[in-house]
Amino acid sequence: MRGLRNMDVRILVLYDSSGNQLEIMADAVGQGIRRIDGAEALVKDISSATPEDLLDADGIVMGSPNWNGVTGRFKAWLDDVSDLANEGMMEGKVGGAFTAGWGRSAGVEATLLQLLHLELTWGMVIVGLPWTERMRTSGSYYGATVHGFLNGDDEEQARSIGARTAQMAKYMRAGGMGPPI
Hints:
Blueprint: E1 9-15, H1 22-34, E2 39-45, H2 51-56, E3 59-65, H3 72-80, H4 82-86, E4 94-101, H5 108-121, E5 125-126, E6 144-147, H6 152-173
Parallel strand pairs: 1-2, 1-3, 3-4, 4-5, 4-6
Helix pairs in contact: 1-6
């Protein structure tokens, strides 16, 4: 057992630091997770993350720089751990996503959708962001984004996806959803 209380949850923030803004975003996601009582954030770049980190997590928020989708380095890391999903070990975990790119038309939503697609194929339960006035300038329904230079709204969107992931993981741990079918 991980040393957490029965209703506590651990959320892994897994990201590729190849993009200069992703580390700041990952830290903001972790801050959002910590806003939820009983939620622990484990923030790790893929260079230090292990398959055990995935297994020990109740939820995973993945972040990749937008390089016409996820980076090749991140995709290779995810491919290397895909056996966990093939064995059903990721099923029922909560997932979210974040990314950063340099332009509104640079494909940040495509990067988010690639991350979410992977989480869905792993049997994860996905959370996104509901509409807020902040979305007029920052964020996406699919997850937290940066367009150009990072600003306070972008960081708040990252905190929001972290908090929503932790809330859903707590809900599920408390029996909010039945066992997988």
